[in-house]
Amino acid sequence: MLEQQEKLWDYDAVEAGQTGPTTEVEITEENISEYALLAQNPDPRFQRPGVSRENDGAMLAMPTMVITYAPLMREEIAEANGFVAQERSTTARRQTPFAKCEIRWWGPVRAGDTITGSRRVLEKYDRRGSKFVTFRVEAANQHGEKVAEYDYTCIFGYAQGSKSVPQTPGSAEPQPLTGNPGGQELALSSSALLSFDEMSEGTQLAQMSISESQEIINRKSDFRLSGEPNPINIHNNEEFARQNIFSGTVSSGPAAMSYLDQMLQRSFSLSAFYQGGQLLMRAIEPFRAGDTVTFQGEVTAKNAESAGRIVECRIKGINQRGDLVNLSDATLILSE
Q: What's the rounded Cα separation, in Å, for the pair 215 and 209?
């Protein structure tokens, strides 16, 4: 009887144009700092106001924080359209995990802003037997200005079955998260940033290595500024995760994007994101607890146009086993 009553929001039930509730989130210095902490980002610009030399010293959010202050909330989209999301099903519970995400920015988000988020199903498609659904989430500030949007693609059906857990697990043990990760702070140094004139195709970006632990994954999973928490998911529940595509708990796609964001900030200013930048990340292999992933990239093109000085980059995230974990493309807009 329960199976007959539960209208499952599976691939066949999803339709382009289905919408979810709008949300409103106040950006505070505290949640900016907490997001950076969970991203293992020690940059003092995200811990104390007045440190940044950009935007008159206002405390700006990390660019990828848009996925938190304007969250996807696919469970709420399902409910708004009369369905039960697969993640909340009592009869056929399963995850619809991250495949890729592309973020586009048009303006900075700072402490004191109020962000309204809207969300809808953009499209669904079948590729090589796997089924995907892409959602679009838009974020606007209290002035009605659109500051960012992202297209987030989930896997609703797997053609290849589950991935196996590596025979050689990661052994990294990151430091517990504190207000000062690793006991150090990165000094702000504009001299470390790349200038448009010194770049050319093949110029290497500053690379960064970062490790995961289950404690960090759990805390990321619990951090929400809007929407209902999902207490059982493939990030925080080993038993449930073993039944899904990755055969064990993994770091989330948005978490990996926050690391990529941090890596790019070592070569580019925040304004390079916030004045028309774009970031696309595709998940290739799971980022598991104990893994260390090194993000390394290079400039693939640059152009001086009326819209600004545009730099394109390709970034690879490679773990300690040599696996390609994620593949990303970034477009940054540099000031004159």
A: 18
